[in-house]
Amino acid sequence: MKAYEIMNRHVYKVFESDTIRSVIKKFIEYHISGLPVINDRNEIIAYISDGDIMRHIGKHKDIIVGSFYYMNVLKGDDEEFEARAKKILDLNVLNIAKKKVITVEYHEDIENIAAILGKKRIKKLPVVRNGVLAGIISRGDVIRHSFQTIL
Predict the structure, then answer these.
(1) Cβ neighbours of 30 (radius 10 Å)
(2) The 3-state secondary structure of the chain, one letter per residue
C-alpha cells in the first residue's frame, strides 16, 4: 500500500504569513492538533503542533548556569498563564513552528510510513508530490489501513 492510497487529501493548513491566533482557531474548529505551514506555492516550509504551543505557554522555571568562576540565573516566567497565552496569539506562526519538517513522498510504502511515525514519535506526516503538499497521513490512518483486512 502506498501513501497516496491512504492519505487524507483534504489538508487543513496555514500560510507562512498567518498568526498563532489563526492556528488556534483551526485547532478548535476542526478538532486537530497540528498543521503544515505553506508558502504561496503550496510548498511545506514548517509544521506547527499543539506541543509547540504548549512549550511556549507552559511555565518556564529559573535556570541556574554556572561554573567554578561564575554563576548566572536565567529568569523564568513572571507573568501569569493567561497573559503568556494571550501574548503568543499575534505572533507569526513561523516564530513557533518547526522548520525541519519530516515528509513522505506520494508513492512511499506504508511500512516505511509506519516506521517513520513510530521512530520519530510524530502524529502526522505531510505527503508531498513534485515538491508540494498533496495530503497528510496520521498514525490512525496507518493503523486502520494496515489492519482492516486482517481483522
Answers:
(1) 10
(2) CEHHHHCECCCCCEECCCEHHHHHHHHHHHCCCEEEEECCCCCEEEEEEHHHHHHHHCCCCCEEEECCCCEEEECCCCCCHHHHHHHHCCCEHHHCCECCCCCEECCCEHHHHHHHHHHHCCCEEEEEECCEEEEEEEHHHHHHHHHCCCC
Question: Whole-prediction pTM value?
Answer: 0.80
- pLDDT mean by block of 10 residues, the chain; 151 residues: 95 96 96 95 95 76 57 54 79 94 96 95 94 95 89 78
* Cell, residue 27: 485547532
- The span from the CA of 36 to the CA of 12, in Å, is 8
